[in-house]
Design brief:
Helices cover 53% and strands 18% of the residues. By secondary structure, the protein is an alpha+beta fold. The chain has a five-stranded mixed beta sheet with strand order 1-2-5-4-3. Strand 4 and strand 5 form a beta hairpin. Helix 6 packs antiparallel against helix 7. The longest helix has 38 residues. The two termini are 30 Å apart.
Length: 242
């Protein structure tokens, strides 16, 4: 079955679903409960990062975490992504095929901090690594750089334990600066970026990456500063997805 047929079937299923008021109400309630699960997953991960921040502050050490932000994917984006995958708009498809509904972004001062913070999170017992994509070592063609980690975190409720998937983007302040402004340039979804502008964006990204490296080289003069970039890969046995 080709993608066009799958997409038509998905749209037909969704129309049938929305034609029944009872189904609409049940779906809305399930959707609300599902988003509560993802919010709980975000709270768990955010708390872990905040505890690490508190630990570094209490030890009077330099903090490798600069900012922590989070978001839940909006319903329209969820529906559009399921349709692009040729899937019906159902709770099961959301849970089993979308891992980026709950998202957290962490910015760090230096490249080494990105890997240090990631390692500290992944070594916790209730965190399971699902996927890791290193767009710092292997930047996207656009010039985008970041470390993407998808994990499942254990969340305990009154009557059950659930494993909630959360996508975490961890990058330097400089990488976040580029990504935030590049996103602003793409605020119109139907706008195709001219090639000369795309090339300029890649050039700016390369310049920022070089400055990130220069700043890290300066940081190596700080007593006790350790470059965790290579150690992160040396210590891990999990296959890294590039």
């Amino acid at each position: 079955m080709d993608n066009e047929i799958i997409l038509r079937k998905s749209m037909e299923d969704n129309r049938n679903l929305l034609s029944d008021p009872v189904s609409i109400m049940n779906t809305a309630m399930q959707f609300q409960q599902l988003l509560m699960l993802y919010e709980s997953g975000i709270k768990q991960i955010t708390t872990k990062f905040e505890i690490l921040e508190d630990e570094f502050s209490s030890k009077h050490e330099r903090n490798p975490i600069e900012t922590i932000t989070s978001r839940i994917k909006d319903p329209m984006s969820i529906a559009e992504k399921l349709q692009r995958k040729g899937l019906s708009l159902t709770m099961d498809n959301m849970v089993n095929h979308l891992y980026d509904i709950a998202g957290i972004r962490v910015t760090c001062p230096f490249i080494s901090d990105v890997y240090r913070v990631t390692q500290m999170l992944l070594q916790q017992d209730d965190i399971t690594l699902i996927e890791l994509k290193d767009y710092i070592k292997n930047p996207k063609e656009s010039g985008y750089r970041s470390l993407h980690v998808i994990v499942k975190v254990s969340v305990y409720f009154s009557d059950q334990k659930r494993e909630i998937p959360v996508e975490i983007q961890i990058r330097t302040i400089a990488m976040d600066f580029w990504a935030s402004l590049e996103h602003q340039l793409h605020y119109k979804k139907d706008y195709t970026m001219p090639e000369d502008i795309s090339q300029e964006l890649r050039s700016i990204s390369d310049a920022i990456a070089k400055n990130d490296e220069r700043m890290q080289n300066l940081a190596k003069n700080i007593p006790g500063f350790v470059d965790y970039s290579q150690a992160f890969y040396d210590e891990r046995e999990t296959k890294i997805v590039s």
